[in-house]
Amino acid sequence: MFNIIKPGLKTTIQDNGRYGFYHLGVPPSGAADKFSYRIGNILLGNPLDSAALEMTLLGPVIEVEKSTVISVTGAPARVLLNQKEIPMWETVKVVEGDLLEFSYHSSKAGVYTYLCVSGGFSLPEVLGSRSAYLLSDFEGYLGRRLAAGDEVAVSEPLPGAFKRAGISLPDMHIPAFSNHVNVRAVMGLTSDLITDEGVTGCLNSEWTTQMESDRVALRMKGAIVPSEEFPPPFGSGGGFASVVDMAYPIGAILVPNEEEIIVLLNDATSGGGFISLGTVISMDLDLIAQARPLTTIRFHAVTIDQALVARRERKKKLALISEMLG
Amino acid sequence: MFTLPKTRFHFSGDEFIVAEISREMNAESNFKALAITNEVRNRNIPGVIEVYPANASYLVRYDPDVVSPYDLLDYLKDIDITKSDIGQLNFQSKMIEVPVWYDDPVSAEFSRRFSDRNPKDAADVTDFEYTMQLNGYRDKERFIEAHSKYPHLVTMLGFNPGLTWSYPLGPAKEEVIHALKYASPRTDTPKGALGIGGVFSVIYPLSSPGSYQLIGASAVPVYDQKQQLSDFKSSIILVRPGDLWKFKSVDEKEFVAIKKQVEEKSYRYKVKEVAFSAEDYVRSGRSYIENMMEGF
Predict the structure, then answer these.
(1) pLDDT tens digits, residue range A168-222?
(2) Where on the tree of life does the source sit, at the highest rank (chain A) (predicted)?
(3) What is the CATH number of the domain that holds A256?
(4) pLDDT digit string (tens) for B159-196?
(5) Which of 158-217 (A) contact B at CB < 8 A?
């Protein structure tokens, strides 16, 4: 067991996500920053979909009740083991009775930090996944954030786990966390309903992320996105630039009004009637999810072919890291 | 011969294809979305992760490491052609009765609480009255009759788990009850509320944000994650796209009595199996629906 002494701002259990239920309105959920989450599991030699703790800005205080090996990845955090600072992106042995404390890091960038443990956190799956989805009524820890007094079960350490203590990710592979983020998007979807000036204006402008962002969506302001004057399609209900409600891709860049855009993340509302400029490519969802409020965002249009090249590069990099860390 | 417009396909990011069958809502586009997505699902295509029918469109999520986006697009276009003939779009359906207390006090209270987010002019008008007036009705009972007379085709699920969009079958296009959405979404909606936005009626499965006008309350659940009622034994959701529901107006007393049965887990839904002919519906419209309703 890992006992939650203080829960932190918002700590949830996440894995690689929940698939096959989006058409029922159940979003994929899963780690907001897949790259960091995956490295955490690679460091430990875990199955790549092992459940981890996802901590938001201010992390928890945890009492360790089982000797095992952990790794901490993602947004920079100050991590104390029995009041002594330990490194991130490195496997660390912990023993029964240890106290783990997570607190703010001076770098002031990034949102989500991951705590992985050998074999993963162990709890019953809901619809094939161990990812919490806070807008659901899923049983137990998968329907809510963790609270003080919660006891989260961990697997038995994997064979050879303790021999892996001290393995670290070379600095050159640690992602940069910044308050200026560039993201790539495939433009299109219902963007023909936005004026050409609106589309280019969106790409040429700097957007600033807003406070009310969360795992569902990142909201931002900064430019004006005028819509074409078009008669509302029958069924849409009219209002600002609305279309007949449709299913939204994860990463969709929605335009709810002229002054705001919303990028849907892994806990997305699966459908609605906002027009959409395009879709952020899957690799860059990590970057956008890690953007703190008041981060500046620039969008860059890419083709599907460019998106596939970026995807192959990411895959190669992860394969290289996997091989390197054995 | 009846032909559907040409579908517009979009690559969305590196993992999604969205197909817009039509920009305007009509039942035929939904029949086609349902037929295509059923076909894609049945073919178990390696690399296809999500298949999601929507009101007049559909979405496919895929893993481009397994299936090439271009090959998948061509494949979907081929399926699209085979499903462009209305004779190919028949489906098996079930009609389910949903008892609703229209113009209930909880919906009225939420209407007032969030009236500043609603495009309506007068803050003291409830969402029910606002929607009734927008559709040209002055008499409450006639408005309820107009909304509950015809079955609604379940056209899409989503927004959040278990929320169901539905579109009335039977009324002429200009008779379809419609509503504006809130200008800024409510931060809360009562569980079980019946809402209207555009031409769609929805029942909110859980308390959640929302932007549809609230006109009533369902006495029965449409989503049961714990699968406690016997009609949820095989699924956490009551209806699937292609099913029909028929709203039935109930008063406060009936509403409370049904709620009690639901709490005691003894409630059984009124259900009728229907072999739905898209062809007959396109040909005969209202009279086909009226025949289907006989004895229900």
Answers:
(1) 999 999 999 999 999 999 998 888 888 888 888 889 999 999 988 899 999 999 9
(2) Bacteria
(3) 2.40.100.10
(4) 878 899 999 999 999 999 999 888 778 889 999 999 99
(5) 185-186, 188-190
CB pairs under 8 A between A and B: 179
**C-alpha distances in Å from residue B122, one per residue of B109, B112, B130, B160:** 15, 10, 9, 30
Q: Domains in chain B, ordered, with CATH?
A: 8-88 (3.30.1360.40), 92-293 (2.40.100.10)
The answer to whether residues A153 and A241 belong to one domain is no
> Taking CA atoms, what residue in B is nearest to A301?
B13
* A246:B61 CB<8 A: no
> Which residue from A186, A235, A242 is facing B199, i.e. has the nearest CB?
A235
Q: Which of B89, B46, B44, B51 is nearest to B65 (CA)?
A: B46
Q: What is the pTM of this model?
A: 0.94
Collect all residues with Cβ–Cβ distance below 8 Å to B260 and sequence separation of at least 6: none
Instruction: State residue B146 phi and psi, 5-degree precision.
Output: -65, -35
Residue A150 domain-assigned (yes or no): yes
A130-143 per-residue burial string, b: 16 or more CB within 10 A, e: under 16: bbbbbbbbbeebbe
Q: Do A247 and B25 touch (CB under 8 A)?
A: no
Residue type, A236: S
How far B157 CA lies from chain A's nearest CA (Å)? 5
Q: Residue A325 domain-assigned?
A: no
| Interchain CB distance below 8 Å, A22 and B158 | yes
For residue B26, list chain A residues with Cβ-Cβ distance below 8 A. Answer: 234-235
Residue A95 within a domain: yes
Q: Which DSSP string do the residues of A49-89 spell out, in sequence order?
A: T-BEEEEESS--EEEE-S-EEEEEEES--EEEETTEE--SS
Supply the ipTM of this predicted assembly: 0.95
Concatenated DSSP letters for B12-75? ETTTEEEEES-SS--HHHHHHHHHHHHHHHHTT-TTEEEEEE-SSEEEEEE-TTTS-HHHHHHH
Q: Which domain holds residue A256?
A: 180-314
Sequence-ordered alpha helix ranges (H) in chain B:
27-42, 69-82, 105-113, 127-134, 140-148, 252-263, 278-284, 286-293
